[in-house]
Amino acid sequence: MSSETHGSENHHSDRPVSRSRQGWVPSPSISYLVARIESRRSWRKVRNQDLWLALAGIGILFVLVSLPIMYSFGASFGEELNADSAPIDIAFTIVIGTWITMVAFGIMAGTGSEGEVDNQAAILTVRPPKDVAGGLLLGTVVGYAPLLCLPALAGGIGIAVGVGTPAPIAGILAGSILLLVTGVTIGYACGLTIKGIVRRSARLTQLKPAIGVAIFVGYIWLSATGRLFTIVIDAGELLRSSPLGWLADLTFLTTPNAGASVLNAIGALAVSAAVVPVGVFAVVRAAEYAWYAEQRQRDSDDEPVESSGRDSTSLGERFDAALGVVGVSAGARGVTTTVLVRAYRSPLQLVYVVVPLFLLLPTIETAVSSGFVPEWLPWGVLLYGGWVAGAAFPLNLLGDQGATLPTVLTARIRGRQVVHGYVLAAVLIFVLPTAVAAIATAQVAGRSTETLLSVGLASPLAVIAGAVLAAGFGAAFPRFQSIDLTGSTKALLPSKTAFTLFSMTATFSITAIGVLIDDIYRIVTSDLLTTWLPYGITVSPGRLETASQIVTGLVVVAVPLAYLFASRRIDSYRLE
User: Which domain holds residue 213?
Assistant: First the structure.
């Protein structure tokens, strides 16, 4: 009997492992299944969370708006091809720049949530990392496809109309697919590698918030100054003579009079055929490097993790001591320290406050390129400073507590101390940047000394008033349900009601103050309202001044009322 059992055990131990688990090549069927499941989960997250739904809507709108623009450019380019006056070199450079952009998208995906898999420990137990990595890569490529292929198709149709033949569409679609697959694959591997390096370094893990903020600020600055497009085009020119330039030949191979080389196009196909498997292999190895580093970090209590925790605690203690020196009460400085340390550890939770900057990017870019700064822009800077001071911290001061809310409500700390702490955090972070930016903008705009003093003195008042008003709205309309920012990061964002009411109040209040202080701003605002209001409504500077006086009076009353309401709301709040 024992010999039979022993033979049975040998029989099972010698059973060959499934071919889908062997080697490094991801299983196509399993990768497809992983990609489909992750895509469904992503869509469910987008559908159920208003922030992601809004961002998805913006992305779709961007693609839809780009289609007629690309068609128009393509039609003009096609007509120029027929006239032998088309800028072929620029078109080829744009193709290479597009590939660089796809690499950048791949890096962002690898370092972000697209480089993670939900329920990672269980999934990596059921399936080998190669299949999971292959599925995530496939989902990422498919996800970015509309951003590239739809505008490229619109441009290709435009070129076809311009030259009078549908042939260009074939080459442009083939080139777009290769640009997408090769660029995203290489970028994705680089992004996962960066993720693994950061996770294996205690110092980089500690500095990750600061690095992320620096990269984001750098991106905004490059976009605002117009240097980002220049850098991409310069990089495309530099790589034009490399094998990457062959992708441009493939893209325009079927376009008449484009001067594309058949040999270079064949070379692009050959190089891509070699790059894709190498890139997939790099993705698999980089995924293992990143994911298993995270598991070891979670499962062990090694020194780097403890050191990082001690550093954060030490930073908070030093900051708390500094506030105590200047006379801040223990309760208020404890709240202030907690708010600032929490923001440093999770800066992604504040990402929504930079959204209005994108509305100012065209104005800033025009000002930088032309040297002309609009005379109203200092008040726009002041408006943003006052708004962001409230939106960043106090606008969800109850919901922001999360699991610690019962402790806050039952502690000896009073509601006014909580409000003081949140307002102080906003003041410490935003008063100086707002004042400096507003004064500098006014100086560059050539405004008078009186205006410089006005925006400088109004900056701390705008920040303090914005923070107090936000505390009132946040206490009235708290939000306790978090949203998923990345695979492992959640955020408690303000409620839509609080966000909308505060944004409207801040806009009306600071605009009214600017109208009363600055004659030029009053005239500009009057002209703007008269231009955009419907039914031919005209707003004269005199009527605008009267309305601004009423609004300012209401604000003077609303700020202390918001402070009292927020303080008492915290003291009387009860958990159901």
Answer: 23-300
